[in-house]
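Input sequence (195 aa), recorded before submission:
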Amino acid sequence: MLLLKDIPKYETLLAYSKRYPNVNPDSLEAYINLLRVASDVLEGLEGYYAMHGTSQGRFTVLALLNREPDKALCPADLAERSGVTRATMTGLLQGLEEEGLIKRTASAEDKRMSYVGLTSKGRKYLDSILPDLFKRLSQLMDGVTEREGKSLVKLLEKVRARIPVLKISDRDKSSEARRITRPSALTASSRAQAA
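Predicted structure, token format:
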């Protein structure tokens, strides 16, 4: 989530491009706005989920199971599709099972494996909140034409494909650590020189 609420003006980004190499003010402006909108949407959704007694994580599990309500999935698949660890998924499933929204069934072939599916209560719960959620999402996107929406999806797919450039490798970590002098290290070094 982006904590920054005060989005910098284009002039500020232009000044950055003169101070720092590799700054493209247009790209940076798009990036900051993308994060700000995504953060605001997530914040709004968290409030919506809380109003319905759930959270983003729990809702994500239910939504994944609701794609094919008659098909059960294994917890590992749910974790991967949700983008959470298996341990986090275990906690989410435990809470949903305690509420009777999902059920776990042991695999007939391998008793160590289990499958997770929606209960009738889980389906009714989703059927009670999804119409209003879809209405709100439609209202959110109401100012975007169909053509703009398709363009937006294509643009976001381009950005998503580039996300690996943000991931830091071990080689990046060691070279960056040698290049940067941390403020705390600089202060300690300065104090040692002064003494």
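Checked by second reader. The CA atoms of residues 188 and 194 lie 10 Å apart.
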